[in-house]
Amino acid sequence: MKVVEWRREFHRYPEIGFTEFFTASKVIETLRSLGFSVLYGQDAMDGAARFGVPAKEILEKAYHQAMKRGANPALLESMKGGYTAVVGILQGKESGPTLAYRFELDALPIEESQSTDHLPHRFEFRSRLKGQMHACGHDAHLAIGLGVAEKIADRNFAGTIKLIFQPAEEGVRGARSMIEKGIVDDVDLIICQHIGMGVPTGQIQGGVEGFLATTKLEVTFLGEPAHAGAAPEKGKNALLGATTAFFNIQSLGQHSGGKARINVGVLEGGTAANIIPATARMVIETRADQQEVNQELVERVYQIIASSAMMHRLEYSIEIIGEATTFQCDEELVSLVLEEAEHIEGFTSLQKSSVTAEGSEDASLLIRRVQERGGYGTYCIIGSDLAAPHHHAHFDIHEEVLPHAVQLLERIARRDWEIAHF
Amino acid sequence: MKVVEWRREFHRYPEIGFTEFFTASKVIETLRSLGFSVLYGQDAMDGAARFGVPAKEILEKAYHQAMKRGANPALLESMKGGYTAVVGILQGKESGPTLAYRFELDALPIEESQSTDHLPHRFEFRSRLKGQMHACGHDAHLAIGLGVAEKIADRNFAGTIKLIFQPAEEGVRGARSMIEKGIVDDVDLIICQHIGMGVPTGQIQGGVEGFLATTKLEVTFLGEPAHAGAAPEKGKNALLGATTAFFNIQSLGQHSGGKARINVGVLEGGTAANIIPATARMVIETRADQQEVNQELVERVYQIIASSAMMHRLEYSIEIIGEATTFQCDEELVSLVLEEAEHIEGFTSLQKSSVTAEGSEDASLLIRRVQERGGYGTYCIIGSDLAAPHHHAHFDIHEEVLPHAVQLLERIARRDWEIAHF
Amino acid sequence: MKVVEWRREFHRYPEIGFTEFFTASKVIETLRSLGFSVLYGQDAMDGAARFGVPAKEILEKAYHQAMKRGANPALLESMKGGYTAVVGILQGKESGPTLAYRFELDALPIEESQSTDHLPHRFEFRSRLKGQMHACGHDAHLAIGLGVAEKIADRNFAGTIKLIFQPAEEGVRGARSMIEKGIVDDVDLIICQHIGMGVPTGQIQGGVEGFLATTKLEVTFLGEPAHAGAAPEKGKNALLGATTAFFNIQSLGQHSGGKARINVGVLEGGTAANIIPATARMVIETRADQQEVNQELVERVYQIIASSAMMHRLEYSIEIIGEATTFQCDEELVSLVLEEAEHIEGFTSLQKSSVTAEGSEDASLLIRRVQERGGYGTYCIIGSDLAAPHHHAHFDIHEEVLPHAVQLLERIARRDWEIAHF
Amino acid sequence: MKVVEWRREFHRYPEIGFTEFFTASKVIETLRSLGFSVLYGQDAMDGAARFGVPAKEILEKAYHQAMKRGANPALLESMKGGYTAVVGILQGKESGPTLAYRFELDALPIEESQSTDHLPHRFEFRSRLKGQMHACGHDAHLAIGLGVAEKIADRNFAGTIKLIFQPAEEGVRGARSMIEKGIVDDVDLIICQHIGMGVPTGQIQGGVEGFLATTKLEVTFLGEPAHAGAAPEKGKNALLGATTAFFNIQSLGQHSGGKARINVGVLEGGTAANIIPATARMVIETRADQQEVNQELVERVYQIIASSAMMHRLEYSIEIIGEATTFQCDEELVSLVLEEAEHIEGFTSLQKSSVTAEGSEDASLLIRRVQERGGYGTYCIIGSDLAAPHHHAHFDIHEEVLPHAVQLLERIARRDWEIAHF
To answer: Where are the transmembrane segments (chains A, B, C, D) (predicted)?
Structure first.
C-alpha cells in the first residue's frame, strides 16, 4: 500500500522543527503532481510569527543534507531559513464549505532504537539521521495526508479542501506562523488528528479534552565575570540570578483555578571553576487547563526573572519559544466524524472523547482561530496500539490503521454537506 | 572602696539600651552633687538620631520600674521615651583643652548565672532584673566614671572635662544621637576605654585596632494572606520574599577588600499552617574592616531586599537600627596614656595595641567626629582577667583593677597640657 | 428562643482548642440536667492521641479564667490539662440503631469586631475574651446540640442517641483523641453538620464533597550559635536549614494525582543581628484530594527536613499537630436527611451536595471510622447567609436557622428506623 | 635571540592541559639534542594522580593535530592519553646538590586577539589554534627552560640539574601526577618562577606570599526524567538538587581563619522545557589562605552535595579535578636568588616578596614535597610589564626579560654550592 510506503519513507528521513526541507519538498511535489495548488515558503507562513527557530548553523546543516539527498533546489531555495510550511488547495466539482485537515512535518531529537524488536530497524526503514527520529507518529500523519490527497484528486467533492502541513509542532512552535499568514481564515471546518495517544487499534475518538494551555520561554542573564579568588565582589553572578529565579518559579505551581504546571527544563551557566559566572540560560514552560491561569503564570515568571536580574545587576532577555492554548471540540463535528467512522470496517469502537490529553498542542491555535471566525473544529484520535510511548526510542505504530484513517478523511471530504447544519 | 560599691550597685540594676532610667538618674545626681554641670534628656541627645529604640511598652515598663525603685521623678520625666544620655561638664581652675571620657550606661538581655561560683551571686549583687545583666563590664565603666568625677571635683586641672555617659552601646545604637546633638563638637581629646577584652589583669593597652564598621538593619515585608487550601495564588507570600533575600544575602560575604561579614540574625514570618504568610521580618548585620566595603554590603542588601519584594509584589521597609565605623587611634594619645600608666603601680605591662578587636563599637563614631574636627582620640583597654567571656551569663571582672583605671584617668585629667603638642 | 440564648452565651465566651473548660462544663451540666449519661475528661478522649495541645501556661490560664467565671470546680478538675471532650448518651424508649451527632466546642484566636454593624457587638453578646472569637459558627453548633438534647429528653425515639461534643476542630486536632477512646465504635449512623459554608439561608445540603486530606506539621531545628563577626564558621545555622527546607517544600505542589497543596505557614528563627541563628521553627501543612497523595507529600516533607538538617549539621524534630482525611457521604444518609428536611418549613431548597468544600475537617476521621465498621455517615450543611466569611472578625450567622436545624436533627432522631435499610 | 624564537614558536602552537603533545615532543627533542637524559610519558607521571583529564575525544583531536603538525610519532605514542610530562636530567662535572627548575607546558582556552596593537598578531606569531592561547606566559617559561638547558649543556656545574616540564598547571591539575611518580623526591633545591604577575620589567622578586590553597570539584547529579505536564511528581529533579547545593555553598565564604573563597563556576542541567530535569553538573572551587580552612570548606561542600542529593532522591558523584596548597618560600633560597640577580644588568630592582599572589599554583605541591623531605624551595617572579592582565586575549610580555631570566637560572646552576648552607 502506498500509504505505508510513504510512512516508511518519511520515517527514514526525520527532520526536526523548521528544518523539514526534504520532507516539505517531497510533500510539495506530490501535491502538485496530484493537481493541488500549493502554497509554501513565505507564502505559507509568517516568518516573524515562528517560535523557537533553530540557530543558523542548524538550519544550514539540515538544508545541505536535504540538498544532498536530492531535494528540488528551487523548492529548497524558497524554504531557506526555515520556511517549511506547505498548504495544498483543491476545489471540488461542486460548491461547498472549506474543509481543512492538518498534518505535522517534524520529527524529534531522539536517537532511534536499533533493537531487533524494533520493526523500523528490522524492516530497514529506521532513521538515516543520527539523533533524530519520528517518535511521535507525524510520519504516519504525513502519509495519511498524502493518502487523502491522492483519493480526492478526482475532485468528486463539494467545496474546497485545504491540506495543511505544519512545521515544528514539537515545542508548539509552528502553528502561529501559519495562522498569522491567514491560512485558516477562510476555513469553515478544521479537523486535526493524532495517531495513538493511548487509544487502542480499532478505536476512533471523535474529539478530545484536556489539552493544556502552555507557554515555553527562553531566558538569558548577562552579568560580568571576575576572578573568583582575587576579586569575587567585582563579578555580577548570572547563576545567582538564574538559581534565584529557579527557586521562586518552582513555588508557582498551586492554583485554585484548576491544573497548573510549571517547569524549569533547562538551567545552565558559567564557564570555569575560578570565574564568577557571567552568563546563564533557562528554558521554562508554564501550563494550565485554563488559558487565563497560564497567562497569570507567564506574568509571574516575567516578574520573577526581572526581579532576579535587578537583584544581581544583570541584563536579561525573555523570548517566547512556543505557545498553545486550550480548546473545545465542537459537538457537531465530533458526531459527524463518528457518523462517517461507523461505515469503516476497521473502526470497531467509536468514542466521543474517552481519553484526556495530558499535554499541549498548537492545533489548539488553529482550531480556536477557525472557531473565532464562526467555523467548527475538532481533534480526533486514530487508535493504534504502540510498541512504546510517544517520544520513546522504541515508539512504533500499527501501520494497518493508516488506510482506515485515509478512508475516514476521504469519506468526510466527499460528504454531501448540509451547510445549514453548520 | 567606693568605686567597687558603685560597680556593685550598677550591677544589681542592669537596664538595657535606652531604658537606663534608674542608672542615668543615679549618675545625674552623683555628678550634680560633685559640682558638675549636667546635660541630660533632650539636652544630651537628638531623639531622631537614635537607632533601634525599643517599643513603647518596653520603655514604659522600665520607666515604671525605675520609678518604683525610687528614681527622682523630675529627672525621670525628662528622660521619658528613652532620653537617657548624660553629660557631666566641669571647668578646671586653669585654662586648657576639652578632654572627654566616655562610659556606657546599658546592660544586656541575658539572665545572670546563679552558680555559687559566680561572685556577683555569692556576694549578693546579682541582677535584680529578670533576664537582664551587666555582662559586658559597663557597670565597671560607670563606676570608673563616677570615681574620676569624684577625684577631679576639686577642679585642680587645666581645661574642661566632659564625662560622656552614653546609652545603648550594645547594638551600636546610642552614640549617633549624642554626636548629632553636638556633644563632642568642642572636644579636643577623647578617650574611650573598655575593661577586659582578652587583656589580662595588670596590663594596659593604650590603643586598639580592628574594630569593624557595621550596620544593623531591620527589614519588614508585607504581602497578603490567603487560604492555603482554597486560593493559594491569591496570597502574596512575604516568606517567599524574605527567604529569597536570605539566600542571596548569604552569598555576599566574599570581598577582596578585606574582612567582610554578613549575617541574617533573625527571620520570622507567617501566622498559621493554613494561611499564606503575609508578613515577615528580618534583622541583618553587615561588617567589614573597611568602611567602604561595609557601605557596599549595605547597598547590596538594599538592592536584594527591594528586588525580593518586587518579585513577590510585597511592600517593604528597611530601617537602620545600629551603626558603627572603623577608626584609628592617634599615636600621640596612645603614648600619652601609656606615659601616665607607667606611674601607676597596678599596671605592670604597657602595650600599644597588642590585641585585635573582633567586634564593633560606636565609640568609633565619637572618635571619628573628634578627629574630623581636628581633635585626637584613642580607645584603651584596661586589662582584667575574666570569669567568662563578654556577653556570657558567668561574665565577671577583677574589681581590683577599678581603682587603677580611676587613677589613670585622673592622672591624664590633671596633666599639665602642652597644648601645642596636640 | 432558648437555642438563640444558648448561642449567644457560647458566643460571649469563646475558648480555643483544648481549653474549652467553661464551655464543656456548661454542656456537661445541661446534658446531665436533661437526663443524659455523660462521658467527659479522660473518659471521653485519649490524651496521647490529641494533636497540637497548647503549651502548659495557655492551658492553665484558660483553666483559671473558667474557674473565675464560675465553672464547676469538680468538672474542671477532670478536664485539667486539656481534656475537654464531652459525650452525652441517651437510650430511647424503643430499641434501634445508635445515632451520633457531632458538634465542635472550640473558637478561634481572632479579635472580634467592634463595629456597630456587627450584631454581636450591637446586641451585646460580643466576645468577653481578648483575641478570641467564635468566628466559624461552632457556637451555633453547640446551641443546636443542646437544643436537640432538650427536645429528645422525652426518650420518645428508638435506639441510642450519642451527642459528641468535640474539642479542637480548628487545626483538625481533636477528633482523633475521641476515636482512639472508642467513642464512635458502636455508632451505626453519624451525622455531622456545619452552618454557612456558602450555602444561603433556607437551603439545606444533605452531603458534601471535596474536603481535603491534610496533615499539619511542626518542625524545629537546633544548631549552634556563634558570634557573626568573630567566628561565623563556628555556628551551625538553623535558619540556613529552615530556608533550604522552605524552598524545596515550595516545589512539591504539582501532582498528577489531583489537587495537591503545600504551605509553610510559619518560619521563624534567630535571636539577634550579631548571632548565627541557632534555632528555627516551621509550621507546614500538606493537603490533597487523595489521601495517598497527601501521604506522599508528607513523606517528601520528612525527607526534605531530614536532608536540610544533615546539610547544616542540625538536630531536628517533626511533630504532627493536626490531621484529617477525605471521605464520601453515604447516599442513603444524604437522602434520609433531605427526606426529613422536606417536612420543615424553614428549608425551602434541598440539595444533595451543590457546594464543594475547599478546606479540611476532622469530622472526616469520625465518619471514616464509622464507615469502616459498617456504619453510615454524612456531613450536611445548614444554609445561612453570612455577614462575612468564616474566620473573619465580622463573621455572623442568621440565628433564625437555628430552630430549623434543631427540628431537623429531632426529626431524624425520632424516625421509625427500618434498620434493614442501613 | 634563540630564546625569543622559542617563545614565539611555542606561542604559535598553544596546547591546553594534558594535550601538550606537540609542545612536549619539541621539548623532549631539544633536551635530548643537548645531551639531557629525558623522562617522559608514563615515566614522568602517574596517570591515576592526574586531575581533570580532558575527555577522550579532546585528547584524540589534539593528538592528531600534533601528528599533522609533524610531531615525532614515536614520542607521541608514549604520550597517548594525556601523558605529556617531561623531565630533563643532566649531571654536572662535579658533585653537588640536585637542583630543579619547573616550567609549565600548557596554554588556555582563550581566543587570541587579532588587534593590530597586539604584537603577536602584528609580528605573526599569533596562535594557530582556534580558541587556544598562551595567555599566561607559559610560552615564555618554556623558552627560558630551553634557554637554560642550552647554556648548561657544557656540564660546567656541580650536582644534578632537573628541568621539570609540567603539564596542566591551569586548573592546578598536573603537578600531583609528577610528584606521585617521585620526580622531586631526590631534589634538594627547587626554584619555580613566573613572569609578570604585576611586577614591572627590570624587577625581580626572590619569593612570593599569598598563594591560596584550593580544591576544584566536579559534581554530577542523576535523577529521573518525567513529563512535566502529565506526571511532574514522577520525576526526580536533578536541578532542584543542584540549585539547593548552589545556594548553600554560596553561604560558606565567611571564616575567621583568614581569607576563604568559594565559587560555583558552572551549573548546568536539564534537556527540554517539558521534561523534569534528570541530570545536572556543577564545577566548584574552594580557596583559603590556610590549608586547614580549605579542607574544612571542601568537607562542607561534600556534606551539602550529599544532603542535596538525599533530599531529592538523586544519585551523585564528586570528583576532585584540581588541587593546590599554600607554601612558604625558604628565606635562604630567596636570598640566594637575589644574590645572583644582583650580578645581572637587566635586573634593576631586587625584592624579597613585594607582591602578594591572589591565585593558586600547583607549584605549591612540588615545593611542599621538596621541603617535607628536607629540601628548600622558592617561587620567584621575573618582572615584565604586560600589555594586558594574565588570562586576557591581549596578554603579552616584554620579550627582553627572557635572556635575563635565562642568565639568572644559569648563574644559580653554576653556583659553587656550600651544601652545608642548605
So the answer is: none
Contacts of C251 in chain A (CB under 8 A): 247, 250-251, 253
Q: In one letter, which amino acid is C298?
A: V
In this predicted structure, which of B155-164, C167-176, C411-420, D385-394 has the lowest mean pLDDT? C411-420
- Do the annotations mark residue B421 as ligand-binding? no
Instruction: Residue D141: name the closest of D184, D89, D194 by CA.
Output: D194
DSSP letters, B349-401, are EEESS-SB--S--THHHHHHHHHHTT-EEEEEEE----SS-TTSTT----TTH
Mean pLDDT, residues B348-370 = 90
Task: Looking at the complex, report in whole angstroms how far the Cα of residue C307 sits from the nearest Cα belonging to chain A.
Answer: 17
Cα B123 versus chain centre, distance: 27
Domain end point (choices D303, D323, D343): D323
Chain A residues whose beta carbon lies within 8 Å of the beta carbon of residue B303: 310-311, 313
Does C261 contact A253 at a Cβ distance shorter than 8 Å? no
Chain B residues in contact with chain C using a Cβ-Cβ cutoff of 8 Å:
171, 212, 214, 216-217, 227-232, 239-240, 243, 246-247, 250, 253, 261, 263-277, 283-285, 287, 321-322, 358-360
Which residues in chain A touch residue D304, judged by CB atoms under 8 angstroms apart? none
> Global pTM?
0.91
Which of D250, D261, D358 has its CB closest to that of B251? D250
pLDDT, tens digit (0-9, with 9 covering 90-100), for A220-244:
999 998 889 888 999 999 999 999 9
Same domain, residue pair C316 and C366: no
Looking at the structure, tell me whether residues A8 and A132 fall in a common domain: yes
CA of C321: how far to CAs of C51, C61, C176, in Å? 4, 21, 11
Question: From CA A272, how far away is CA A267, in angstroms rounded?
Answer: 16
Q: Is C340 annotated as a binding residue?
A: no
C-beta of residue D342 within 8 angstroms of C-beta of residue D191: no
CA A46 to chain centroid: 16
Q: How confident is the model at residue A257 (pLDDT cuts 50, 70, 90)?
A: confident
Q: Of the candidates B140, B132, B38, B31, which has an alpha carbon nearest to the alpha carbon of residue B79? A: B38
In this predicted structure, what is the pLDDT of residue C355?
73
pLDDT of residue D422: 56
Those residues of chain D that have pLDDT short of 70 are: 418-422
Say whether D304 and C311 touch across the interface (CB within 8 A).
yes
CB contact under 8 A, C232 and D256: yes
Is residue D143 located within the same domain as residue D205? yes
Domain that holds residue D332: 2-211+327-421
Record: contact A284-D265, CB cut-off 8 A: no
CA distance B302 to chain A (A): 9
Q: Please report, for residues A32, A66, A372, D72, D170, the alpha-carbon distance to residue A70 in angstroms, rounded to integers and kept in the order given.
A: 18, 6, 41, 44, 49
Residues of D in contact with A288 (CB under 8 A): none
Pair B307, B339 in one domain: no
- Yes or no, beta carbons of C254 and A253 under 8 Å apart: yes
Total domains in chain D come to 2
Q: ipTM of this complex > 0.90? A: no
**Residue in C332, C300, C335 with CA at minimum distance from that of residue C318:** C300
Instruction: Clarify whether residues B311 and B223 are in a common domain.
Output: yes
DSSP states along D137-160:
SHHHHHHHHHHHHHHHTT--SEEE
Under DSSP, the state recorded for A47 is: G
With 70 as the cut, is the pLDDT of residue C82 above it? Answer: yes
Look at residues A289, A306, A324 and tell me which one is the last residue of a structural domain: A324
Per residue in B309-343, pLDDT (tens digit) is 999 999 999 999 999 999 999 999 999 999 999 99
Interface residue ranges in chain A relative to chain B, Cβ cutoff 8 Å: 230-234, 237, 240, 244, 247-248, 251, 254-257, 260, 296, 303-304, 306-308, 310-313
pLDDT score of B120: 97
pLDDT at A63: 97
Single out the residue of C238, C337, C231 nearest to residue C280, CA to CA: C238
